[in-house]
Amino acid sequence: VQLGESGGGLVQPGGSLRLSCAASGFTFSSYAMSWYRQAPGKERELVAYINSGGGSTNYADSVKGRFTISRDNAKNTVYLQMNSLKPEDTAVYYCKAERLGLVRRVYWGQGTQVTVSS
Length: 118
Fold this sequence. Notes:
The chain is mainly β.
């Protein structure tokens, strides 16, 4: 099982980034996907969620209207489009795959750094 995040980097306030998380080794279309982030000295927090079919999404209040989560089940990839970035968005961003049911399975990626600074 692998989850590989990419697309992080350094961006100025007000800028945009698009994160990608490519999955392999499991049935991607059966898993809900989420993006989390963790800033230095803070707990990991949920940023955005999308269900397995892509028809339902949820966002943290702090990113509503600025971030958009989407998925392409044909490409086994989930995305996070981040616009109007703020310094407080600086963190390591992780993707998570989760399948509920008789046997709950959770997989995490290694993370990608996003730094918003002038």
